Amino acid sequence: MRKLIVLVLCIWCSLSKAQKFEELAKKPPMGWNSWNKFECKINETIVKEIADALVKTGMKNAGYEYVIVDDCWQIGRDSLGNIIPDPERFPSGIKNLVDYVHSKGLKFGIYSDAGTQTCQGRPGSRGYEFQDARAYAKWGVDLLKYDWCNHGKQNAEASYALMRDAIYKAGRPMVLSICEWGTNKPWEWGASVGHTWRTTEDIINCFDCKNNWGGLGVLQIIDAQVEIGGYSGPGHWNDPDMLEIGNGVLTTSEERLHMSMWAMFSAPLIAGNDIRNMSAKTNEILTNKEVLAIDQDSLGISATRWMKYADLEIWFKPLSDNNFAFCLINRSNQPIVINQDLKATIKNYKVDGSYKVRDVWKRQNIGTTTDNIKGTIAAHDVLMLKLTKK
Ligand code: GLA
Prior knowledge:
By secondary structure, this protein is of the alpha/beta class. Helix content is 30%, strand content 22%. Helix 6 (129-139) links the parallel strand 5 (107-113) and strand 6.
């Protein structure tokens, strides 16, 4: 009899064990999100056109797969508590939109909030976690971005774990993208709860600035990653927020630097621009295969800042096959002359002999680690290198 009770308890324990869908996001998710460009001015026509554009522009081929509708798609709840999409902006309903996105070979992401209301005052999922997760599953949603506005005194880890459990119970694998802005150090608990976690407040569309509610420019977000790279890895990624590439403020150099560093962090790459009419330059920056391969490298090791010398920083990232990626970034408004011995940086790794050095933006081999790397990095620009065993 005792054995039977233990057996029943064990089965119950293993069935009720809290878990996330482990097999998802083994590489950093890539896709597009409506917020940076459209904020609340989003509707189903734009989302469909974006899905078409992802295919037409080659973004899908390059690996961008999630089409994520951010805040403002939801308007209220019916008498049974079911979430209601805004009928003016999404007249065909979310399920139809998901089907459309799926028909393009893409995946669909949706947005909600762990508190009572979203950041734009729409209904949050607090108290409706299981019901909302069931609705998303029924619609065929593949990813949930889960925000942290209006949370009162809620415990962050418990709130996100509750949604993890709700998604698991709903039975459809969905990436859980924790958007808690780094307030409660999600890197310390996020790996067992979700697949990605925001590390900071929102990115703002500038290179070097902060605003009064905590929004951060590209450099400020990079600085916030220095201590936490070690928490990121396959299935559980630091998320330094969505890309501002193609949104008309950053210069080409700054956009390249932004893209390079997100790839160095193995960050989720979520485009935030209007890709229906982006320039060839923007497309080129977002889809450079060699840069994307560094982001998507199977080891998923986030870069380490090896050196900071005034406005020059050198970051490096071990890659699979004993290769390495390097970024030399120039934070200043002046060009910086470099003469760098890269061997010294990686001497603690099992490095024997010399490596080929390739400039991944110029797509040119520029020498070997036998010699110092020499040159000039323009203001706010980056030299991104891949070192490959000869
Ligand atoms: C928060 C998030 C943003 C975006 C907005 C939407 O600020 O951090 O990424 O989702 O809410 O209201």
